[in-house]
Amino acid sequence: MALFRTVPGVDCITAWTVIAEIGVDMSRFATSGNLASWCGLCPGNSASAGKRHSGKTSKDNRYIRRVLAQAAWAAARINRKRNFFTTLSFRISSRAGMKKAAVAVAHRMLSIIYSMIRDGSPYRENGADYFDRIHPERTKNKLMAQLQRLGFLLHLEPKQITPKQLSC
């Protein structure tokens, strides 16, 4: 219970429901994807003749689906300090909508909970700038384009790194 409460958006009822429904033995599920599929938090993958059909999620375990969707909404709406789930929700909702973003955040929460139960490790926050850190070139291009749309003329040079900065 204490491990689960460290995840943003998860409270006592969420933790109780998850433990009651999936238990603490993760040997039943080979991967977090198997658990997400069992909980009904995976998008459908129906295609025929190169045409994608509906990507609706299945209705497998309605209790976990509901409680994790509520936790995802709560985690995405934390105002006092932005976190990884807030950033993930904003990124997905900008192109797919708020409801699909809530399901995607719930899916990510479930995969994190799976690894927490399996390994016994605490939650480690990736931070709101996680996507900026893993794709710095993409972030630079996006910000440059935004400044150019506002009418600024840009000239960027890479920062010079001294040998003192390299040694820790």
Describe the protein in words.
- The protein has 168 residues and is mainly α.
- The protein has one domain.
- The protein is built from 8 helices and 2 strands; from the N terminus they run ααββαααααα.
- The chain has helices spanning 12-22, 32-39, 62-76, 84-96, 98-119, 130-134, 136-149, 163-166, and strands spanning 47-48, 51-52.
- A two-stranded antiparallel ribbon has the order 1-2.
- Helix 2 crosses helix 5.
Short recap of the structure:
The chain has helices spanning 12-22, 32-39, 62-76, 84-96, 98-119, 130-134, 136-149, 163-166; strands spanning 47-48, 51-52. The protein is mainly α. α1 (12-22) packs antiparallel against α3 and α2 packs across α5.
List keywords for this structure.
single chain; 168 residues; mainly alpha; two-stranded antiparallel sheet; 8 helices; 2 strands
Order of helices and strands: HHEEHHHHHH
> Which structural class best describes the helix and strand composition?
mainly alpha
Largest sheet: 2 strands, antiparallel
Low-confidence stretches: none
CA radius of gyration is 20 Å
Overall form: globular
> What is the residue-averaged pLDDT?
84
What is the spatial order of strands in the main beta sheet? 1-2
Topology, number of strands: 2
Distance between the termini: 38 Å
Beta-strand content: under 5%
- The percentage helix is 40-55%
Number of helices: 8
The tally of structural domains comes to 1
